[in-house]
Amino acid sequence: MNCVKLLVSKAPALQNFTKYFIPFRNESFLTGTSSQYIEDMYTVWLKDPSKVHSSWDSYFRNSVYSPPPNLGSLQKNEVPVAHYYSRVKPNELDPTNKAIEKHLNVQAVIRSYQARGHLVAQLDPLSIMYDPNTSHSDRYGSPPQELVKNYSLGEEDMNKIFKLPVTTFIGGDEKELPLKDILRRLEMAYCRHIGVEFMYIDNLRERNFIREKMEKPGVMEISNEKKRLILARLTRATEFEMFLARKWASVKRFGLEGCEMLIPAIKQIIDRSSELGVEHFVIGLAHRGRLNVLANVCRKPLYQIFTQFATLEPADVGSGDVKYHLGTHSERLNRATNKNVKLTLVANPSHLEIVNGVVLGRTRAEQFYRGDDEGKKVIAIIIHGDASYAGQGSVYETLHLSSLPCYTTHGIISIVVNNQVGFTTDPRHSRSSRYCSDVGHVVNAPIFHVNADDPESVIHCCNVAAEWRARFKKDIVLDIVGYRRNGHNESDEPMFTQPLMYTKIKSHKPILQKYSEQLVKEKVVTDKEVQEEQQKYTKICEDEYLKASKETQIRLKDWLDSPWSGFFEGKDQNKMLSTGVPEATLMHIGKKFSSLPPPQLEFVVHKGLERILKQREVMVQQRTIDWSLGEAMAIGSLVKDGVHVRLSGQDVERGTFSHRHHVLHHQTKDRTTYQPLSNLFPDQAPYTVCNSSLSECGVLSFEVGFSMTSPHSLIMWEAQFGDFANMAQCIFDQFICSGEAKWMRQNGIVVLLPHGYDGMGPEHSSARIERYLQLCDDDPDVVPPESPTVALKQLHDCNWIVANCTTPANLFHIWRRQIALPFRKPLILFTPKNLLRHPEARSSFDDMLEGTEFKRVIPDDGEGSKNPGGVKKLLFCSGKVFYDVRKARDEKKLEKEILIVRVEQLSPFPYDLIKKECDKYATAKICWLQEEPKNNGAYTYALPRMQTLLKKTREVTYVGRPPAAAPATGTKAIHNKEVENLLRDATAL
């Protein structure tokens, strides 16, 4: 090809062109100047074949060449019209020959239908999508009514026979068709009740898959048996909503009326995917239609759903949640395939699309733990609303995880329940794109828009979706266009804001009625059978309602979406496994982590890393660890014990501050890496460390979902800087902080938030300690009763753990403690930046051996501790400020007068240990020391608890920065002055 281009560029004139080279056989690769030369050569040949070289004559005569007329964006390797020229002798052709033009235009028409047929498809059941009186038309304009009008084809051409190109399947076994049949078949495929966007996909095999599924004659035909099944499922979906409306007319339930086809759609995807080998379906959706999905997809016992409408007391501890946020997990026989399937419906708050990442994490974890590396056994199905799918940023963040190696779930089936309105906002005010599903283009997902009032078209799209995902392991989007028969909720008045739409809705037949009438007319079913099916399901609902009326309590455990079978059984909640390990294990891990890759790998390591490895080796020999070795010791000892460890975040492989280096990169070979911690022991558990996309919300929600799947893994997410976790605040609020209280769902995720004031500005200093402490659910006015197990009981009763470690050994223990606990709690861990290499932030092997444990409080054991009466000032602090103040104190030689106590675990608050320190130094002035501004940090959390502990008999004063709107200054000089003032106040007597 390059030779051809070179020769073309050297050709001085067209008449000499043919002397330089023979025709190139794959001209679709030629672009620019070379392509233009061939077009000119073709024009010469049309006029007089003798004017060109004999090889060119043969080339054009045998139809190898495909001239590019006005065909739009011709795709690579597609040869649309080469067939036509073999039918006419060259000397009979001329540049104005109408026959050639007609053939070319037919190809253009076919391509136009494939690319733009969705613009004229009848997608809207209400027929308002292009009504000039509705909100849609002034944005989009009226679509073209004829895709052929610009291609010089008229009535006189309708009966002419045209040879079909290889880029269409409308002919089936036929190679030629009259134009009228070509147009009829194209309209049936692309302009009826399905509009499909797929021509932007750059893979020809994938495009042809869609073409075949849409164009092949008979591909959309459906058996009478399948029609009856659709009707039965549609009946259950409709009757369920009607039953709830009769029994609880004024209660919010966010019903599915107007898009009842969602239920048969999901069930068809499950049926077809089950046939193709899928065993577990992880489902996410917001509130609309959730109860119906619970009842008719997950087969949740109806009486358990109905009890949620009653004002019953919960039988479990926890706040619970409204009925349309709850999740579930079920295993049942799929009658359509006679195979067992698992269904997990993930609980979701009213933040509509925030569950997406959680679903993907759950799916990835299920695939990981069952060794489903290709995603054949577990898939994700996510149901969206039209406004939220277009408007929520979490959609984009999670879509971009679809092909990332450590995050892919091998294709998501996304279903948009398109009500054509969001709350009270019409589409022209809720998005800037034509379709609500346009975000799917970013991952080259085919998008099927389908009219919800055509059940058979919906089912066809569901089959295609299941088959696409099974074959290509890629995302696909189904946009089911319906409407919302009621307002946003059942007590809402939609005529306030959508009068024209709801005027039409009032007179619009429900889909069950329309489809029943259709099947009766087709003699597939009788009126009697329709009525019997409805009465049968109504009786089921009535029986379950009677059963629910006898219930006295609501059991939240019935709604677990992630049951951990066997985890809690037989565990003593008052006992915890040891977190210390033998010295031989520490030494082995240390040596492996500080060694170069094995010589046989011939792995070239960066010179700077060779120095780092040697420094680590020296520390191991001295039985000392820094922060990176503390992390490695924790991970290595856990994987030795069979615990899978996963560390994810934007720069976690190297570490944002270049301290970790868990993945070594070959310096002369691309994509060649070595992971020391994955090569410690022959039978170790996997260690997954993976850099993520530049996302907080999407990736953290993914890791939350991953951690829900198994209690036997340590799942950690690290923010690049603690400040950036703000972008995932919804995940902290809705899933991590309150997930157990709302949904009885424990979670052991570890969140690492780099924190520390180093003069780097307001966005690189504070991880907002105060926010996480504010979300802790312990009572500041209640001191837990002292007992040998008080620390463990506090952990059991809290909603999450908040800690700020100052030593590598404490980091080692708190990571291991996450697995050693007989239950699971999230851990919010503030990690340092300058302590990663601080010469004093070191620990001895002795602090990690068997019998040692995490220190909630680290007392000052210096000279002053030997004479408590001589201590004048007792400083309580947390984090790296300890090292700064200790240095300033020691320089002033105040070791005997000022003691500094480190509070490593901020919540649950270590009342017992702090009381011990306060009692020991009964005459000392008590201060809370922090480097954060007074309205930030831990001060506002610690103060009331210390006052309660001391019964307000001793004053607790504050030492730190004054209150501030911004978390830190952006000026180095001001920072230095603030540090100077802080150290002065801290060491003042």
UniProtKB/TrEMBL annotation:
The keyword Calcium applies. One of its GO terms (cellular component) is mitochondrion. The lineage of its organism: Eukaryota, Metazoa, Ecdysozoa, Arthropoda, Hexapoda. It is an enzyme of class 1 (oxidoreductase). The 2-oxoglutarate dehydrogenase complex catalyzes the overall conversion of 2-oxoglutarate to succinyl-CoA and CO(2). It contains multiple copies of three enzymatic components: 2-oxoglutarate dehydrogenase (E1), dihydrolipoamide succinyltransferase (E2) and lipoamide dehydrogenase (E3). This is 2-oxoglutarate dehydrogenase complex component E1. NCBIfam families: 2oxo_dh_E1, PRK09404.1, PRK12270.1. It comes from Asbolus verrucosus. GO terms for molecular function: metal ion binding; oxoglutarate dehydrogenase (succinyl-transferring) activity; thiamine pyrophosphate binding.
